[in-house]
Structures are given as C-alpha cells and as structure tokens.
Write a structure and sequence with these properties.
Strand 3 and strand 4 form a beta hairpin. By secondary structure, the chain is α+β, with helices and mostly antiparallel strands. 44% of the residues lie in helices and 24% in strands. The longest helix is centred in the C-terminal third of the chain and has 16 residues. It has a five-stranded mixed sheet with strand order 1-5-4-3-2.
Length: 119
C-alpha cells in the first residue's frame, strides 16, 4: 500500500502529531485501511479517530493507494445535565458492585471512556 500525504495533511499533522504517532498511523493504515469509518454524505471519505485527532483519508479504487487528506483535533461534546446524572448513577452502581473507579477528574474521565457507548 502506498500512502500519500496532501500538503494540508502535512501542515496539520506537523502541528498535532509527533513523528512517532505519524509513523504509527502509516503502519496502522497500511495494515488495515478500513479501520476508520465512512463519512456520511461524503462518498469515499473515511474518518479515523487517532491520537486525540480526527484523521481524514481516502482510498483509491485500486486499493493500492491511500491519501491522507487532513487531520484536526477531536472535540467531544460535554455531557448534558441528564447524561451527567446517568454517569453519576453508573459510577455509584460500579462502586456499589465492588468495582473501584479511580481516575483523575472522575466523572470527566468516565465520560471520555463511555461517551461512544451512550450515543
């Protein structure tokens, strides 16, 4: 698999990915180019959440070339009051059930771990 970086990707990646993260991204995509998710409404565009960033890329129809298009920071939505209430209940249930949840920033850390499961 040949991987190409657009100038836009190169500029963005230089600002938000380390050299090691960038190399690991290339290896990940070379191994499994379908690791990301298709972007609805944009045929051929794939988005991957990676190293706290969204990486946008496209595969050539031949499946032998991959084009890294852009990368930008993920912005996860803050939990609503209702979601925060559900998180607190979940935290109480986990603690009561004998599961000890110790994390820096408690509820915030729990939110980061399970937000994708809620939606």
């Amino acid at each position: 698999m040949r991987i190409f970086e657009t100038p836009t990707f190169d500029a963005s990646a230089s600002a938000c990915l380390t050299a090691l993260e960038r190399r690991a991204l290339h290896l990940l995509l070379a191994d499994d180019p379908w690791v990301g998710q298709a972007v609805s409404g944009a045929p051929g565009l794939i988005r991957l959440e990676y190293a706290g960033q969204f990486v946008y890329y496209s595969l050539a129809p031949s499946m032998t070339e991959l084009y890294l298009l852009d990368v930008n920071a993920t912005k996860a939505p803050a939990p609503s009051k209702e979601e925060l209430g559900r998180l607190k209940k979940l935290l109480q249930t986990l603690t009561t059930a004998g599961v000890i949840v110790v994390a820096k920033d408690g509820i915030k850390a729990l939110w980061e771990l399970i937000k994708d499961l809620i939606f």
